[in-house]
Structure formats: structure tokens, C-alpha cells
UniProtKB/TrEMBL annotation:
<dbReference type="InterPro" id="IPR011032">
    <property type="entry name" value="GroES-like_sf"/>
</dbReference>
<dbReference type="Pfam" id="PF08240">
    <property type="entry name" value="ADH_N"/>
</dbReference>
<feature type="domain" description="Enoyl reductase (ER)">
    <location>
        <begin position="12"/>
        <end position="336"/>
    </location>
</feature>
<dbReference type="InterPro" id="IPR020843">
    <property type="entry name" value="ER"/>
</dbReference>
<dbReference type="GO" id="GO:0016491">
    <property type="term" value="F:oxidoreductase activity"/>
</dbReference>
<protein>
    <submittedName>
        <fullName>NAD(P)-dependent alcohol dehydrogenase</fullName>
    </submittedName>
</protein>
<dbReference type="InterPro" id="IPR052711">
    <property type="entry name" value="Zinc_ADH-like"/>
</dbReference>
<dbReference type="Pfam" id="PF00107">
    <property type="entry name" value="ADH_zinc_N"/>
</dbReference>
<dbReference type="InterPro" id="IPR013154">
    <property type="entry name" value="ADH-like_N"/>
</dbReference>
<dbReference type="InterPro" id="IPR013149">
    <property type="entry name" value="ADH-like_C"/>
</dbReference>
<dbReference type="InterPro" id="IPR036291">
    <property type="entry name" value="NAD(P)-bd_dom_sf"/>
</dbReference>
Length: 339
């Protein structure tokens, strides 16, 4: 089968190498999946660059997110049949409940082999059914970006009621899924972006209040103005320490800041006084369990949510897809079509 390997981290796009590998066969309790498409995340750039906290194993297959069709099942498999459409769970050994301390040791795309291959073999308990209305390309965006947004908006923000206000930053996959889920829940969305073109696309998604942070560097003041000085109920904070101080000034007293990304850094000092004096909840948030992914997938199926896709590349141009993600100018998810 054709695949990519991570041959050496820290070498930029040359960290990935096109290889031919033996076709895998499913063992007991496993399923083999013909991967149709994968989607890229900032995490893939971190693994490639050698600055993800847990390094990949030697010659690991990259990319955590993928969807495809089950083509073989191992002995004892009862949950799935050949022909079922599935996507892989990012955490292969987190079925439900509290986040396991060793969860990152069992994540696809390094430390475990990922999805950028024609065939992969996963545990039958580590895959989730694809919503009926989604293509494989669209379904490949669900394991990390969609589930991270789901956890932030629908789980940690579960006390919010229709009419609550959510602030999203930028137009990456997590932020766009958060916008869609928040709107489906009856929440008001305020979004920031860097260009007029992206602002128009956000408005086309139904976002009425868009703040251009290039034109309005003190965007937290505009957020306060838009909320009559009260602040938003929740912030989807994907920037890290470069944007976190503004997010803390944008949220209401007793509100929630979901810290998800580190795009602007993570080592800058932070003034913690707003957290203390305004009783703000600051919470690290990320991907969820298999059970949570199943609930999300059923909901996406019920409301017919369609992921926002930026670009689709073919397998042989996988490195071009990675370069596209690197330029940080995308609106939506970057996809690699395999079969």
C-alpha cells in the first residue's frame, strides 16, 4: 500500500517521505479501513516540526484524522461489518469517562501510526460511524477539530442557554466548527478575523458580529461594546498567550475561557488578576472520548451540519497540503484525498 512516513522531525516538509508498505491485516478485535481522505491539523505541523510534547515513533505514519470504509474485520469483531463508513478516534484507548493520564500515548498520528495511508488497522472500539450526509472528505475533519469544538461549546459550556454569547478567534477548523455548533444551539456568535474577505465568509455562515483584529488591534474593547460592556459568556481561545489576555478581558464575570490552541505562543507571562477578581473559569479543552465522538456524530447527522473545507489535495501532493496549512491563510480544513 502507499503511505507516508515521518522519517525525521524538524526537517520541514522533508520530514514526510512517500513509502510503500505491506498491506496490514486485522487481528482479533480489529478492523481494516481503506482510508478515503484525511484532514490536517496544527498538531500535524507540531509533530513534523519536532515540538509536539510526545515525539512520534520511528517511521510513524503521520496525520491523526481520517475516514474510510471497513474492508476486513478480525476475529471476534461484533460492532462493525465490511462496508461500514467510519472515522478513527484520535484517542484509541479512551472509550468514555474522565481523561486518562496516558491518553496521549495512544493518539493517532504519533505516537501511534496515523491515517495517511491507503489502509489502516484500528481497534473496533476506536472507530466511529460517519454521519450519513457527509462525504469521506468532510468526515475526515471530525476527529480533532469538530470534537474539540464540541467539547468546548457543548460539554464544558453546557450550562449556557439559548441567547448566550460565544466569541471565536480566527477561521481555523476548531473556530469554524464552534461557530456552527454555537449557532445550532441558539447562541450568539462574535468572531474575529484578519481580513475583509474572511469577514464576508463568516457573515455568509450566519455570524452577524465580526471584528477585524488587523483594523481593530484592541478587539477586546469592541467585543465589550458589542455586549453592552458585559462581555461574552464563553471564549474559544485558540491563540495562546498572545491572545489570552484580550480573551480574559472579553469574557463576562463568571464566564468561561476555553484554552484550546497555542498558535501565538505559550511562554509569555499572563496577568492572572482578571481570572481571580472576575471569577473567570479558564479551562484547557481538547479532543474527547470515543463515546463523546459518537454523540457528536449523531448530532451532526441529525442537524445536517456540513464542515467547512478550504482545499482538497490528492495523495501525491500531500506535502503541498501541509504547506497550505503552514501558510495560516486557510478558511476551513485542508484535506488529502487518498482513494
Amino acid at each position: 500500500m502507499k503511505a507516508f512516513n515521518i522519517i525525521e522531525t524538524g526537517k520541514g516538509l522533508d520530514s514526510w517521505s512517500r513509502v510503500d508498505l505491506p498491506d496490514p491485516t486485522p487481528g482479533p478485535g480489529q478492523v481494516s479501513i481503506r482510508v478515503k481522505a484525511v484532514s490536517l491539523n496544527t498538531r500535524d505541523l507540531m509533530v513534523m516540526g519536532g515540538y509536539f510534547p510526545i515525539p512520534p515513533k520511528q517511521n510513524a505514519i503521520p496525520v491523526s484524522d481520517g475516514a474510510g470504509e471497513i474492508v476486513a474485520v478480525g476475529a471476534g469483531v461484533t460492532r462493525w461489518n465490511v462496508g461500514d463508513r467510519v472515522f478513527g478516534s484520535y484517542y484509541q484507548q479512551w472509550p468514555h469517562g474522565q481523561f486518562p493520564a496516558d491518553a496521549e500515548l495512544h493518539a493517532l498520528g504519533g505516537p501511534l501510526d496515523g491515517m495517511l495511508a491507503e489502509l489502516v488497522t484500528l481497534s473496533e472500539s476506536g472507530v466511529v460511524r460517519v454521519p450519513d450526509h457527509l462525504s469521506y472528505e468532510e468526515a475526515s475533519t471530525l476527529p480533532v477539530a469538530a470534537l474539540t469544538a464540541w467539547n468546548a461549546v457543548m460539554e464544558s459550556g453546557g450550562r449556557m442557554t439559548p441567547g448566550a454569547t460565544v466569541l471565536t478567534l480566527g477561521t481555523g477548523g476548531v473556530s469554524l466548527f464552534a461557530i456552527q455548533l454555537a449557532q445550532a444551539s441558539g447562541f450568539r456568535v462574535i468572531a474575529t478575523t484578519s481580513s475583509q474577505a474572511k469577514a464576508e465568509r463568516l457573515r455568509a455562515l450566519g455570524v452577524s458580529d465580526v471584528v477585524n483584529y488587523k483594523h481593530t488591534p484592541n478587539w477586546e474593547q469592541e467585543v465589550l461594546r458589542l455586549t453592552n460592556g458585559q462581555g461574552v459568556d464563553q471564549v474559544i481561545e485558540v491563540g495562546g498567550t498572545g491572545t489570552l489576555p484580550k480573551s480574559l478581558r472579553s469574557v463576562r464575570s463568571g464566564g468561561l475561557v476555553n484554552l484550546i490552541g497555542l498558535l501565538t505562543g505559550f511562554n509569555d507571562p499572563i496577568d492572572t488578576s482578571p481570572i481571580l477578581f472576575n471569577k473567570i473559569r479558564l479551562q484547557g479543552s481538547g479532543v474527547g472520548s470515543v463515546q463523546t465522538a459518537e454523540v457528536m456524530a449523531r448530532t451532526i447527522n441529525a442537524i445536517k451540519l456540513k464542515p467547512v473545507v478550504s482545499d482538497v489535495f490528492d495523495f501525491e501532493n500531500a506535502k503541498h497540503a501541509l504547506a497550505k496549512l503552514q501558510d495560516a491563510a486557510t478558511f476551513g480544513k485542508v484535506i488529502i484525498r487518498i482513494n
